[in-house]
Design goal:
The chain is mostly helical. The protein has one domain. It has 4 helices and 2 strands, in the order H-E-E-H-H-H. The chain has a two-stranded antiparallel sheet with strand order 1-2. Helix 2 runs antiparallel to helix 3. The model is unreliable at 23-31 (pLDDT under 50).
């Protein structure tokens, strides 16, 4: 697992936003944007596996810095959603369903969940205002 610093996560976010804007400009329906919290690896059989929530937890790091990193991970999803909302929906869903998601109060999960809950409230306001619910493309 990698342990990106907040600066590295923010650089990744900037890169993702650029890629997402380019994909949107090109009219891309599908977008292959790598999220820094998703880890792909090959098993012994050569089959590819995906760990949808792969973040390092450092008990020695300042908790607030890790919350900021978690919020930056969510910002990567915001960038992805510019190009492919269904992919962002899947990535968000799979992150919190991952067996690696920790509900033990780690900063990364707390920051990510805070941003996701905030986005959900905005979404609920939009639904109350008459907007349709989001239905991901299968």
């Amino acid at each position: 697992m990698c342990d990106p610093s907040l600066r590295e996560v923010e650089k990744q976010e900037t890169k993702l936003r650029s890629e997402a804007e380019t994909a949107t400009e090109q009219g891309a329906q599908q977008c292959d944007i790598a999220l820094s919290f998703v880890h792909r690896y090959a098993g012994e059989s050569g089959r590819e596996y995906v760990n949808h929530w792969s973040v390092a937890h450092s008990p020695n790091d300042h908790w607030n810095r890790r919350v900021e990193a978690g919020a930056a991970f969510f910002a990567q999803l915001e960038a992805l959603a510019l190009a492919d909302e269904s992919a962002a929906h899947d990535a968000m869903r799979m992150a919190v369903l991952s067996p690696n998601w920790s509900s033990q109060g780690w900063g990364e999960e707390s920051g990510f969940a805070w941003q996701m809950a905030s986005a959900a409230i905005v979404g609920l306001r939009a639904i109350r205002a008459g907007w349709d619910r989001f239905e991901p493309v299968e």
